[in-house]
């Protein structure tokens, strides 16, 4: 099938374990961040969600998502990448170190 370029961003964050003891002022670090900015939603000390303020751009692997905290323990946050097809009509700038990847379209071939 035809190949086309896609660019990745963080589409979602899955939380298999919300941990305990988290509080106001705790923040999230994404490595590599590629411009991403995530904010934890904390309910009763547990991370119950993540607000994606900026999804970042151009990941070639899943970023590592960690919580910066002095009191919280055991939360596991897993990023899910979303693939956006790059259209020739859309102009955007990739940050340093970000990558375009090619996807081969295999949908609907019998």
Q: What can you see in these coordinates?
A:
The protein is mainly β and 110 residues long. It has no helices and seven strands. It has strands spanning 3-17, 27-31, 37-43, 46-54, 64-68, 76-85, 101-104. The strands form three sheets. A three-stranded antiparallel sheet has the order 6-1-7, with no helix packed on it. A two-stranded antiparallel sheet has the order 2-5. The protein is elongated and about 50 Å long.
Features:
110 residues; mainly beta; three-stranded antiparallel β-sheet; two-stranded antiparallel ribbon; 7 strands; elongated
Compile the SSE list and pairings:
Layout (H helix, E strand, L loop, with lengths): L2 E15 L9 E5 L5 E7 L2 E9 L9 E5 L7 E10 L15 E4 L6
Antiparallel strand pairs: 1-6, 1-7, 2-5, 3-4
């Amino acid at each position: 099938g035809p190949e086309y370029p896609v660019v990745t961003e963080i589409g979602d964050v899955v939380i298999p374990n919300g941990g305990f003891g988290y509080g106001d002022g705790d923040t999230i670090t994404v490595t590599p961040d590629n411009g991403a900015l995530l904010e934890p939603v904390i309910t009763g000390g547990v991370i119950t969600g993540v607000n994606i303020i900026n999804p970042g751009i151009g990941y070639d692997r899943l970023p590592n998502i960690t919580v910066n905290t002095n009191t919280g323990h055991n939360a596991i946050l897993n990023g899910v990448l979303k693939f956006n097809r790059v259209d020739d009509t859309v102009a955007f700038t990739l940050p340093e170190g970000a990558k375009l990847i090619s996807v081969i379209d295999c949908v609907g071939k019998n």
